[in-house]
Amino acid sequence: MKTWTGILLMIILAVATISTTSAARTMNESQKQLNIDDQSSQTEVVEASNIDKMHDAANTMQESIPVKEQYVSVASENENIRLYPMKVEGSGYIYNGMTLEVDGKTREFSDWQGEGGSYKPEVHELDLNGDGQKEIVVLYTGGHGTGIYLGQARIINPVTLEEMKMQSLEEIVKQHVQSKVTVRSDHVDVDVTVDGVQAEPSRIEEDTIGGEYNEELGFGGVTYYSVEDGKLVVSAAGSYGLGLYAGDLTFAYAYQDGEWKAADLKYSMEIYEEEYYESFD
Fold this sequence. Notes:
single chain, alpha+beta, 3 helices, globular
């Protein structure tokens, strides 16, 4: 009896061993398949990453392609100083941001929004204050139209390529200019004083009924910046009414107390012809 019991016990153990081995094999096969699937997923991720890198590289190459020569401004004083748009819009007539290049080193100025075409920006290299250190001057047109010309100027340190602080036209007018516009039915009187010196008064004969006039001259609607005789010169028209200009405030920038400020200010009266402003269109 004991013999049969032992034999039965051996049979049960053998069956259990076979079942365990089979289960283990099944788990191993499943694990192998899982590993294969994991590797396939990882491969797909790597391939996707490579595709993204290729796209990034293509975009970088596209962005680094030199802009057309027609958009590049070169300093007449130094051919190694160039100015060109970061992005061109409106068939080349709008510069959305600009890049300044000095001896191969570049810096982007995304807030410089200007016009191209016949109003293409200028770049110059000159010693503005006679200290032996040359500055870079960038001139561009912010916009134009009938009775409007918005010139812009920037002065750049050639070593750091950083903008140097410039006194704004608004600050200059507030500090140096006092004016009064007196409106009568058939004429307008304009009185201007610059740094305590009164300019010659002027009377503009015109029918003022229904017109819009200022109490004092407004500056900024027509502003020109230019480089003349080694100086950055500004001419800003004074407006006595809507689209009506009486004369020019002119000055040059000089470096004082760590900032470029207005010097040699003068105001001269001039009757502007309406056809002159229509030429801006």
